[in-house]
Amino acid sequence: MSAPPDDADARRAVPPVVCYPPETLPAPDLDLYRTARVAARKLGEVVVPPRDGRCFRVPAGGFFRITSVEGPQVGDLNLWAAADLGERFFSGKTRALHGTHVSVGDRLWSCLPHLRPMATIVEDTLDWYGFDEYGGGVHDVIGTRCDPYTHRLLSGGTYHHCCHSNLARALAGETGMPVTEAEHCIHDVLNVFMCTGFTRETGQYFMKASPVRPGDFIEFFAEIDLLGALSACPGGDCGATHSSDAAACHPLLVEVFEAPAAMLGGWAPPSRNLYDRSHGAG
Ligand SMILES: [Zn+2]
Question: pLDDT of 18-75, one tens digit each?
């Protein structure tokens, strides 16, 4: 290890600044969304079986709710613009803007060059959890998704029901793409209901048993027409292990709702980012 300089303590004592202060972002009109939600009607529902994935579609101005049923279960969520699978959820920038874990009022942003809100969280029955003594919180945008490649690296084994594969099969089934093509569309997730953080001493990504219980839910307002995919992670509540059939797993329920357009007043889907994309290239 390198010898610390004489002023090491002074350098460490420099106070941090928030990288992306979100104060200049337009705040979502949660009151408007909630008023519209009261008048919304249910369009349909999808049950995601344990260790499997399913797709669902939500019209712009609609809502979708993910509910724990039967037992504690973590879900891995992917989102695409329904009309363009190239516009997908950007976990990293969502983390940079809102923090490591998301809840009511936070938005799920799409990738560059689009960078616009895809969905806004309007309800979260686990918002009481906050951060625990280990630094753990719920609904993270720090994990990637369990996948058979990392599993192969670490254990040498083959497992076909990691979230990456569950999402790829779901998207292939929904679109007719071969699964090998669909997997290129799978991206870093929102870890719904998962309880995670970083260890204080080593900064390692940790998980612990999710506090979610049947009846808990998180609900989103769809800012644009969405295609979603949700995997019921083979880790179950992710209290011990994943990437195997060892954990107790449960289904997840996805319900989709549509509000009458008149209830949304002057709301309109957000435009794509207005940067001109010339990148100084002349
Ligand atoms: Zn998983």
Answer: 998 888 888 899 999 999 999 999 999 999 999 999 999 999 999 999 999 999 999 9
Q: Map out the domains of the chain as residue ranges.
A: 29-260
For residue 191, how many C-alpha atoms fall within 13 Å in the half-sphere facing its CB? Answer: 29
Cα separation, 105 vs 123, in Å, equals 9
Could you tell me the CA-to-CA distances from 204 to 132, 142, 262, 272 in Å, in that order?
Answer: 16, 11, 48, 35
For residue 150, the CA-to-ligand 1 centroid distance in Å is: 12
Taking the centre of ligand 1 as the mean of its atom positions, its distance from the CA of residue 50, in whole angstroms, is 11
Which 8-state DSSP code applies to residue 273? Answer: P
Q: Please give the distance, rounded to the nearest whole angstrom, from the Cα atom of residue 69 to the centre of ligand 1.
A: 17
How much distance in Å is there from the Cα of 98 to the middle of ligand 1?
23
Q: 75 alpha carbon to ligand 1 midpoint, in Å? A: 7
Residue 191 CA to ligand 1 centre (angstroms): 9
Whole-number Å distance, alpha carbon 146 to ligand 1 midpoint, is: 4
Separation of 235 CA from ligand 1 center, angstroms? 6
Instruction: Give 150 or 247, the one with higher predicted confidence.
Output: 150
As a whole number of angstroms, the distance between CA 160 and CA 172 comes to: 15
> Averaged over 232-260, what is the pLDDT?
91
**Phi, psi (5° rounding) for residue 207?**
-130, 160
Q: In which band, very low, low, confident or very high, does the pLDDT at 265 lie, cut at 50, 70 and 90?
A: confident
- DSSP string of 34-66, one letter each residue: HHHHHT-EEEEEEEE-TT-EEEEEE-TTEEEEE
Phi-psi sector, 135: left (phi>0), alpha (psi -120 to 50), beta = left
Neighbours of 82 (CB within 10 A): 17
